[in-house]
């Protein structure tokens, strides 16, 4: 297996479970995915923070806002591994209640950077924002998690 395949099979699978748990009010699996060593950065859909002392406590606050997640799916667009650094880029599709409001779907574009620490991949950066309303550029090709290509509009 390649470094990328190992990374996706182990780390991304664990991260997806952690994100679903967060969307059901449990921050602990996400906290386990994140490094405790600075530098850490969070450019979230609703906030920007730097450093472990700011970033990690925020996940507990965020988890309190989420409940009743019926859908959490990650659409991988790109990923790579080089030495002790890795990244993922994709779309997070969620249907969840936020602040007790009835569940509603939303999609975020999300980029994560990972650093290998003591043999384990840890997240050190997240950037997420609302997916644009406009469709992707004509002719763009999107790689699906199973390795197949999907043209725009076939998601």
Profile the largest sheet.
6 strands, mixed
Strand content: 35-45%
Structural class: alpha+beta
Mean pLDDT: 89
Write the layout of secondary structure elements.
Elements: H1 3-22, H2 28-33, E1 41-43, E2 48-50, H3 52-65, E3 66-82, E4 85-98, E5 104-117, E6 120-130, E7 142-143, E8 149-150
Characterization of the model:
The protein has 155 residues and is α+β, with helices and mostly antiparallel strands. The protein is 26% helix and 43% strand. The protein contains three helices and eight strands. It has helices spanning 3-22, 28-33, 52-65, and strands at residues 41-43, 48-50, 66-82, 85-98, 104-117, 120-130, 142-143, 149-150. The strands form two sheets. A six-stranded mixed sheet has the order 2-1-6-5-4-3, with helices on one face. The protein has a two-stranded antiparallel ribbon with strand order 7-8. The longest helix is centred in the first third of the chain and has 20 residues, at 3-22. The radius of gyration is 16 Å and the shape is globular. The model is unreliable at 150-155 (pLDDT under 50).
């Amino acid at each position: 297996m390649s470094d990328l395949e190992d990374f996706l099979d182990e780390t991304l699978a664990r991260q997806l479970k952690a994100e679903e748990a967060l969307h059901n009010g449990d921050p602990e699996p996400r906290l386990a995915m994140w490094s405790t060593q600075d530098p850490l950065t969070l450019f979230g859909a609703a906030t920007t923070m730097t450093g472990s002392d700011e970033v990690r406590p925020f996940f507990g606050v965020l988890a309190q806002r989420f409940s009743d997640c019926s859908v959490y799916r990650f659409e991988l667009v790109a990923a790579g591994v080089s030495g002790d650094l890795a990244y993922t880029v994709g779309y997070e599709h969620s249907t969840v209640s936020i602040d007790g409001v009835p569940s509603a779907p939303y999609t975020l574009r999300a980029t994560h950077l990972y650093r290998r620490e003591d043999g384990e991949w840890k997240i050190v950066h997240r950037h997420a924002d609302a997916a644009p309303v406009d469709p992707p550029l004509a002719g763009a090709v999107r790689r699906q998690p199973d390795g197949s290509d999907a043209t725009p509009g076939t998601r």
